[in-house]
Write a structure and sequence with these properties.
- Helices cover 67% and strands 4% of the residues.
- With 248 residues, it is mostly helical.
- It contains eleven helices and three strands, in the order αααααβββαααααα.
- α7 runs antiparallel to α8.
- It has a three-stranded antiparallel β-sheet.
- The radius of gyration is 18 Å and the shape is globular.
- Bound molecules: the ligand CNC(=O)[C@@H]1CCCN1C(=O)c1ccc(Cl)c(COc2cccc3c(C(F)(F)F)cc(C)nc23)c1Cl.
- The ligand CNC(=O)[C@@H]1CCCN1C(=O)c1ccc(Cl)c(COc2cccc3c(C(F)(F)F)cc(C)nc23)c1Cl binds next to α4, α5, β2, α6 and α9.
Length: 248
Amino acid sequence: CQYPTSLLHIEELCASIVRSHRETSQYRVEELQALRWKIFTREEIQMYHSKSVDEMWQLCADRLSDAVQYVVEFAKRLPGFRQIRQNDQINLLKSGSMEVVLVRMSRLFNTENSTVFFDGKFAGTEVFKSLLCADLIMAVFDFAHSMSALRLTEPQVAIFSALVLINPDRPGLEDRGRVQRLRKDIELALSHILHRDNQESLVHRLYQKVPVLKGLCSLHIDKLHWFRQLYPLTVHTHFPPLYKELFG
Ligand SMILES: CNC(=O)[C@@H]1CCCN1C(=O)c1ccc(Cl)c(COc2cccc3c(C(F)(F)F)cc(C)nc23)c1Cl
C-alpha cells in the first residue's frame, strides 16, 4: 500500500543520495578547481591530432567506460535501486548511465575557457579532432556548458542525477510501478532541497534538461554505431565489456 512520504523520509533520502554521489563522483570539485588552469600545450594537442581515429575512440571509450562504472556504483547505492527487479536495473542503467555521465561532466567543465577535464588536463574541442565527430563533441560541450552555467551545488547534481536515472518512462520496464514510486520520492527530494536552497526557479530549468539529454544520447548511440561500422575490431576488443553490454 502507499504510505504518505514523511518529510523525515525525504530528508533521509536526500542525505543518502548526496552521500552516494560523493562516494562515487570520480573527481572531487576541489581537485578540479585546483587543476582549472592546467590546459594542453600545442605539442600535447599535436600528439592527440597524430592519433588515428580508432586510437582516439579507444582512449575516449576507456574514459567513458570508467565514468559509466562510477555511475553504476552510484545507482547501486541509491536507496530503493536494489529493490527494483534486476532486469529493470539493467534497463535503467542501459538507457540512463550516459545521461548521468553527461550531467556529471558539467562539474568537469570550465566555462571561462570552454574546456573540459580530459586525460589529466582541461581540453578544448580541438583536442578531439581525430574522433571525426565534431558535431557530437560540440553537442557534449554545449550541454556541459549549459549545465555548468546553472551553477548547481553537489547535492543538487546528486539528486538531479538520481532523477535522470530513475526514469519510469524507459521502454521495456517490467515493474514500472515500483520505478514510479521511487521516482516520486526523488522528485520530492529535489523540490525539498531546491526549496531549502531558496532556488525553486531551478526546478523547471532542470526538468527542461531531461529531453535535451535524451536527444544527446541518441546522437551518441548513432555515432557509436557509425564508429563500430568502421572499426568493428576496436569496439569488439577494446571497448570494455560493460560498455558493450550497455551500448552494444
Ligand atoms: C577525466 N574526465 C573524464 O573522465 C570525463 C568523464 C566522462 C568522460 N570523460 C572524458 O574524459 C571526456 C570529457 C569530454 C569529452 Cl568531449 C570526451 C569525449 O567524449 C566522447 C568521445 C567519443 C564518444 C562519446 C560518446 C559516444 F558516442 F560514445 F556515445 C558519448 C559521450 C558522452 N562522449 C563521447 C571525454 Cl571521453
